Amino acid sequence: MQKIYLDNAATTKIDKKVFEAMAPYLKGDFGNASSLHWFGQKAHEAITKARQQAADFLNCNFLEVYFTGSATESDNLAIFGAMRAAQKKGIAKPHIITSAIEHPAVLEVVKHLEKTGEIEATYLAVGKEGVVKVEDVQKSIKENTVLVSIMYVNNEIGAIQPIAAIGNWLKIKNQKSKIKILLHTDAVQAVNYLDCNVGKLGVDLLTLSGHKIYGPKGAGVLYKRKGVELEPIIFGGHQERGLRPGTENIAAIVGVGEAIAEILNSKLQILKIKKLRDKLIDGILKNIPGTNLNGSRESRLPNNVNISFDGVEGESILMALNEKGVAVSTGSACASGSLEPSYVLLALGCSVVKAHGSIRFTLGKYNTEKDINYVLKILPGIIERLRKISPLK
Amino acid sequence: MALPYSKQVIQHFNKPHNYGKMKNPDGVGEVGNVVCGDLMKLYIKVGQNKKGQDIIKDIKFETYGCLAAIASSSMLTDLVKGKTIEEAIKFDRKEIVEGLGSLPPIKIHCSVLAGGALIEAIHDYLTKNKKPIPQALNKRHKQLAAEKQTIGKNRQVC
Questions:
Q1: Interface predicted TM-score of the whole assembly (ipTM), two decimals
Q2: Half-sphere exposure of residue A52, counting CA atoms within 13 Å on the CB side?
Q3: Domain topology for A267-389
Q4: Which residue, of A149, A181, A208, B140, is most buried by count of CB atoms within 10 Å of its CB?
Q5: Chain B residues within 8 A (CB-CB) of chain A?
Q6: CB neighbours of A336 closer than 8 A, spacing ≥ 6?
Q7: pTM across the whole model
């Protein structure tokens, strides 16, 4: 049976070039980057190269790049770190603005800190398109606001957020105020497709992940603009200039650097993927009745398709596609161990039933037109079969 | 993360037994809630065996839900088809899980739901035909009705 992978927002297949760059550091080049001898220096050089690769992509100084163990860790470091730095400066209960559709790596952190009473939080609502409004950010600013954390692109519906507009507005606002409000963006889903020039975006902190860009898992990056104060959340060493102690995972860092460098060469891929995405969206909406696209069509990542199928539940569609060799995911978190429908779709005003019946297809650079044709061929039959079983007609 | 489903669950899901709407059923049981992601409708046709006892002569289901919900419904119909009403009332829903090999813990509620649908279908049949309703069955029916109401209330907000 052919296997078609359409879950690239979950993770991606490692690029051969990335793997080859990593391999020596899992074999002979095993040194600890902190060691002064030849072995250590080789590891140190590898990290420096990866740091420069990330800096080139983000258009920043290489010392503004910090390697972490995952994007979740980067998000935690950005939020906890900014909060504690603010508390250190005397803001007893800092205020953080985020959105209702953030990835749990941000949302759960903010909720946790709100629950423990350490911060005040505002969760910005989004409309049907799933896009945060810049005015809403502006209106939510309080005297004690220290951080705005908005994702660059939503992971479920691919909705692109106006980070540059928020960033530019904050830059001007910060010039006049004593408390500088930091802007953090979780750019994990965006990096393959959108401009991540941190200067243009006006962000102070940016998170990215290795395994969403054809790189290794267990590798995250946090960009921290020079001068931005963050308190560490892990203690015990001097690595990453004391912000993220722990012996560096050299192979993973080399891999994330190489994967980032590959993005620079992938502009043509974006057009190809976007064309395939449109074919999939149009093909489903045209050939299967009772379907709708969730999220904005225009302000959408080139690889994301999120569709609700009336009368059928998402997990059964997922498993039926899986039986035919096609890997997708549910918009609803059902398959991830929770029975609750997707909070992201609910935030768009999507009904609970529609949220239960949603499927996310996320394309990647290894997908071909043949893959899309195959999905379009088998999907109508699957939906028809499940609708026959369903009491909802 | 795909849930670890047994071979039997996958088989029942791929080729469910006894699905579809039944014309002129003698009893209908409906449990679950679309809002929660599971809705089951069970139809029964009642006949008599040689001893003159009421039996489930035919059974069909319609289910909106995940793979486990569909497989549980299918398994239930296999297990109770041909049983006397008396036996069916005593049906232990654990048999569904056993018949399916296993269900992931988070999906056990699908088998509970299927068991509830059977109770409701039998209750409906007995009520419609003005037959005596055993106390235990009536108690389960009341519980199910109460659950349905609370679910409706709690979920209105989302």
A1: 0.89
A2: 6
A3: Aspartate Aminotransferase, domain 1 (3.90.1150)
A4: A208
A5: 1-3, 5, 10, 13-14, 16, 19-21, 30, 34-41, 61-67, 69-70, 106, 155, 158
A6: B1
A7: 0.92
